[in-house]
Structures are given as C-alpha cells and as structure tokens.
Design goal:
With 300 residues, this protein is mostly beta strands. It has one helix at 293-296, and strands spanning 24-27, 33-43, 46-57, 60-70, 80-81, 97-100, 103-109, 126-131, 141-142, 158-165, 168-174, 178-183, 189-195, 200-207, 210-216, 221-226, 233-238, 251-258, 268-274, 283-289.
Length: 300
C-alpha cells in the first residue's frame, strides 16, 4: 500500500534553500577511489565513519564497505575495508550504527553488478552486521523486511536505516520511494508501507511522537515529517552551498546527521558530493559541524 499523503506538498518544484554552509571535505575523491554514503558513530572519543568505497581496479570497479576513524574530525585514517571483493555482492551504503543488547549493529546493502550493470541490479538487498568493538564485524545477515516471503519476491531494495523506537525497531529502505517495516528483535519483520514522495539514503530522527526523515531527491537534501506514517509534511530541499563546491558539481546527496545533543545545535552533517568527470560513482565525503537541520529547513 502507498501511504503517501503530503500535507505541505511542493510537487515537482524544489524549494531550494542554499544555506551558506562551511563544508569540509574529509575524504576527497581520487582517480582510484570514490567515497559515498557516509554514516558515523562517536564512541570512546573516536569518530567512526562508515561509507561506500568505490574502487577502480585492474579488473573493474567494485564497491566495498569501509571505515575511517578520527579523534578531531580533521584528520582521518586511510580506508579500512570491511567487506570481501565481489561484484555479485558489492556490500556498501551503511545506513547507521546503533548499540543495543551489548552489541553494535549496522545495516548495509548489496549492490550486485555481476553482468556489468551500471547500477545495482534487481538482486540488491539489505543486510545487518554486528560487532562487540566496532572493529570486528559478523557475516552479513539478510533483513527479511517484507516478512516471511521468498527472497526472490522481496524486490530490489537499497539504502537501509534502522531506528529504535520504544520497544521496536523501524527499518527504512529505498523501495517505491521509502518503504518501512517494524520488528521487535531485528529478525522477524512486518512490512508497514511506503511513501513514494521520498528520496533515497534516508536518515531518521525522532522527537517526541514525530519522525523527521532527511532524504536525497534528485539533488540536495530533503526533509519530511510524520507522526503516523500516513501523512507527511514536506519542508522542501536544501543544496547547502553547492555552487561553491566543485567536488559536488554533479550532485549533493546522502546526508547523515550525527546528533550530539537534544537541541541539535552541535550536530554534524555528513554527506557526499558527486563529480563524475573521470568515472561513474566518483564522489567525496564532506562534513559540516554544528549543523541544525531545523534552522536549515526554516522550521524553528
């Protein structure tokens, strides 16, 4: 079922808010590597940044799940690859990392391009991995977010994000806009529906009974708000200060908010900018410190 009903619809016209944001590139694109789809967690004074590493190798282009760490948000370690090589998998696009029951959990996707496809094919699915220390991760487990149906009937799905809400988990993923499912244990899932007016790479924040969904339309970052997953208020999009970012000339996208206090005045926005002048999926990861999403979308 399609649960889209925008209470403040902007249709096909973007309400672009070009905030003069001081973005800092932390993982710049090279001829051999592109950096995409960031998410982060702060643990023990260390920022752990997870992302899609797109690597151009002698035998082709491959996606990997990778990590870099920092103590100061300025100096970042070289990529540490966390997933195996293989175009039939191409593990990538970490949605978020959360801690529950003495384990860290991270949701990721596969992006199969075994037959030379440009984009992940219909076998793209979403998975979860676990860790005790943010260093060693378990083998990926399929998230059966459509319930107990055959894997082949689940449909193409990418870009997962899992939010703990009360005594249940909500999983958001790209399928027919954004789709959402719920679970009590991260194993058995119930499909809830979708919002076709939402873009990809969602990041979801909960305040009281409201859910704010940061998402990526054709270009820039969009924001939706819902209290019931039936009615969605649309606050438009921002392209930040994209015209000043040559490294994001083709697209600015995949925003992730690392919340550092309840007021959101110390949040960090991570995102990537596309520059595909040299190869498809060429991108750099940047951040903006002390970014307040409510100010950015004029909803204070």
């Amino acid at each position: 079922m399609n649960l889209l009903r925008l209470t403040n619809s902007i249709g096909d016209k973007y309400m672009s808010k070009n905030i003069n944001s001081n973005a800092k590139v932390i993982l710049p694109q090279t001829k051999a590597q592109g950096f995409r789809d960031p998410c982060a967690i702060l643990s023990g004074g260390i920022y752990h940044l997870y992302y899609s590493l797109v690597q151009n190798e002698d035998d082709g282009q491959f996606f990997y799940l990778a990590e870099s760490i920092s103590h100061d948000l300025k100096n970042w370690s070289a990529p540490r690859i966390l997933s195996p090589k293989g175009s039939e998998y191409n593990y990538s696009s970490p949605g978020n990392v959360f801690f529950q029951n003495n384990l860290y959990h991270m949701c990721i996707q596969t992006y199969p391009r075994r037959d030379g496809e440009t984009y992940g094919n219909e076998n793209s699915r979403i998975f979860i991995i676990h860790s005790k220390d943010l260093i060693h991760w378990t083998t990926p487990e399929l998230l059966k977010v459509k319930g107990d149906i055959p894997v082949g009937e689940m449909g193409r799905m990418i870009d997962p994000y899992i939010l703990q809400s009360g005594d249940e988990f909500l999983c958001f993923y790209k399928q027919n806009g954004v789709s959402f499912s719920k679970s009590k244990d991260l194993i058995t899932w119930e499909y809830l529906g979708n919002c076709s007016g939402c873009g990809e790479n969602v990041c979801v924040l909960k305040e009281g009974s409201s859910y704010y969904i940061l998402h990526s339309p054709k270009n820039g970052l969009g924001l939706l708000k819902t209290d019931n997953f039936s009615d969605f208020e649309d606050f438009g999009t921002t392209t930040l200060n994209q015209e000043a970012y040559p490294w994001a000339k083709d697209r600015l996208t995949a925003g992730f908010i690392l919340q550092r206090n309840p007021k959101h005045d110390k949040d960090i926005l991570f995102f990537h900018g596309d520059d595909e002048s040299n190869y498809t999926f060429g991108a750099s990861i940047a951040l903006i410190e002390n970014w307040n999403f409510k100010k950015a979308f004029s909803i204070m």
